[in-house]
Amino acid sequence: MKANIMYEAGDVRVEDVPKPQLEESTDSVLKVVAACICGSDLHPYRHMHADEQGGGEPMGHEVIGRIEEMGSGVTDFKKGDLVVVPFAYGDNTCPYCQEGLQTSCVNGGFMSGCQAEYVRIPQAQGSMFKLPDEIGDDSPLLPSLLTISDVYGTGYHAAVMGGVNENTTVTVVGDGAVGLLAVLSAKKLGARKIILMGRHKERTDLGVEFGATDVVSERGDEGIAKVHELTNGEGTHVVLECVGLMPAYDMSVGVVRPGGVISRVGAPQYEEAGVGFASLFRHNITLTGGPAPTRAYMDELLPDILDGSLNPGRVFDVTMGIDDVPEGYRAMNDREALKVLVKP
Amino acid sequence: MKANIMYEAGDVRVEDVPKPQLEESTDSVLKVVAACICGSDLHPYRHMHADEQGGGEPMGHEVIGRIEEMGSGVTDFKKGDLVVVPFAYGDNTCPYCQEGLQTSCVNGGFMSGCQAEYVRIPQAQGSMFKLPDEIGDDSPLLPSLLTISDVYGTGYHAAVMGGVNENTTVTVVGDGAVGLLAVLSAKKLGARKIILMGRHKERTDLGVEFGATDVVSERGDEGIAKVHELTNGEGTHVVLECVGLMPAYDMSVGVVRPGGVISRVGAPQYEEAGVGFASLFRHNITLTGGPAPTRAYMDELLPDILDGSLNPGRVFDVTMGIDDVPEGYRAMNDREALKVLVKP
């Protein structure tokens, strides 16, 4: 079968590899119906060093697929079921999963290899989420349904961890797919003011359609000043940091209101950051967030998609076949594409 | 009048200085009935550099006193009233104060000069908290009442911000007065397991009386391993960091459970710290806390003290006169005293 493998920064190749097999009784194998390229895939695309042994990384962690095979421990599904899988697999039964923190599952891990024709799903019983039988492989709802695997669930996690509600003002840092869906999530949770910080007009325009009340295209100190202008000098109660780079962290510290919350879902590309008196401590700023347990939110996010009231799949602006994934990386990296849907 | 002034590390002097006067209509002047030395006063006592102009810092930020004078803007009190004042003064009317975050009051600041015979209170109307008329200057309740100015309110803030309740397990890092009162606070809020990390047996013994269920005297990796042993390998839901030094931060990261909260009230003596994938992000750890708005908790903490059911004043193990304060600093710094009460 065909799969996309990354060897080092800028080097993604479509290759013929063996079709994945069941390895554990808890596995399933899916025939991929829809996958995609994630903003977080661009971090290795920019910075990955070649493995000295010449090995590559099977790419892709978001997938909708039809069940091709199941191990004996996977009992609540039947072959041919259409399922969506969270980017972090897990058994959905351990104490952390029961608390809704599937990303810390004791039997969990992160998906890989979804930008392919078939993919193996570990802990399939707990990870797979069945989609309604009436959804076909060419359903116009597929892009939106795929977003609950990662980007929509991740934006929603940011908003939930930030404590967004009808009494909070919100700044969203970043106009990538997660940032835009953090806007949608903040709107869904009732935020009355949603300031989107982003520089790409076609993206922030979509953000406004998703519910942003203001757009700030300036960055750094200028951007911070602009948010203060929009908030009576106070900053916003909640900041949803959807980038993961140091300048985004510093900007978040700059725009958060005393007593407020910075909720991060952009995987941090740094380890140390300011947390002392000058940054977080003086005004009781809370720092929260992490990898989103998107499995926990699927039941909640599905209805609005099925009834058409929300359309998070609009973050996909390009659809490509499996052979075009390397070109998809290039297009996203050059910001020609916001997010690439892959249909094998 | 006599006041204690710090000139540089290790140099505190009792001096004759002018009695403070009303400077603003919102001020009051108190005759000090009880003050104390704070663990946070030891940071400058260890590290303060001499001012090139030769100026010193009037020390002390916790006080109970009788109103000697009031400006025209102070209307809800009468001369002679016994009041306790939070270590952070504020108007108690601005938006932050109304939300219970008096430490971010737009007209606020931090108290100083309480280790003296008289002290000026800015924003007196909002800062002063009247104690019942039956409390005399020699009431045995005075030590406990003084703790709501800072250390008890600060320990309580840690527990509140950490979300401590009957379903949470708690680690308290630090066996100073704030750490011990964080134990008391966690107990008051119903925590079922409270692990106190501290090395000083006479202090941790008091911690056990305050409600600690376990004591871990090891530090660093050994201490972390011990907490994991006590918690089925998971760590605790909440960590109350009551020290403010880097090793305490790292230990907090080591003992917090996935999805848990680190609540800091020890003023951080560092600015940068680990917050990335390896420390906070991977398992959705929340970092919270800051200077405690102790004014916000006074109504809540008073009744248990007045009826004798809680005795947070036990953290005071030495009482000294105003002339002995320099010796009090030395004793606390050398860990001969846990916390020094000052009775002018």
List keywords for this structure.
homodimer; 344 residues; alpha/beta; Quinone Oxidoreductase, Chain A, domain 1; 12 helices; 19 strands; 29% helix; 25% strand
Structural features, described:
- 2 copies of one chain form a homodimer.
- Chain A is of the alpha/beta class.
- The first copy, chain A, folds into 2 domains: 2-150 and 293-342, Quinone Oxidoreductase, Chain A, domain 1 (Alpha-Beta Complex); 155-289, NAD(P)-binding Rossmann-like Domain (Rossmann fold, 3-Layer(aba) Sandwich), CATH 3.40.50.720.
- The first copy, chain A, has helices at residues 42-47, 95-98, 124-127, 142-147, 151-161, 177-188, 201-210, 220-230, 246-255, 277-281, 294-306, 325-333, and strands spanning 2-8, 11-16, 28-36, 57-58, 63-70, 82-85, 88-89, 109-110, 118-121, 129-130, 169-173, 193-197, 214-216, 236-241, 256-264, 272-274, 286-289, 318-320, 340-342.
- In chain A, helix 8 runs parallel beside helix 9.
- The relative contact order of chain A is 0.16.
- Strand 16 (272-274) of chain A pairs antiparallel with strand 16 of chain B, so a sheet runs across the interface.
- Strand segment count of chain A: 19
**What's the CATH class of the largest domain in chain A, please?**
Alpha Beta
Name of the CATH homologous superfamily of the largest domain in chain A: Medium-chain alcohol dehydrogenases, catalytic domain
Q: What's the CATH architecture of the largest domain in chain A?
A: Alpha-Beta Complex
- Rg of chain A, rounded, reads 20 Å
Largest sheet of chain A: 7 strands, mixed
* Total helical segments of chain A: 12
Oligomer: homodimer
**Beta content of chain A:** 25-35%
What number is the mean pLDDT of chain A? 97
Given as residue ranges, the uncertain stretches of chain A (5+ residues, pLDDT < 50) are none
Helix-residue proportion of chain A: 25-40%
How is the CATH topology of the largest domain in chain A named?
Answer: Quinone Oxidoreductase, Chain A, domain 1
Q: Largest chain-chain contact?
A: A-B, 35 and 35 residues
Count of folded domains of chain A: 2
| Euclidean distance between termini CA atoms of chain A | 11 Å
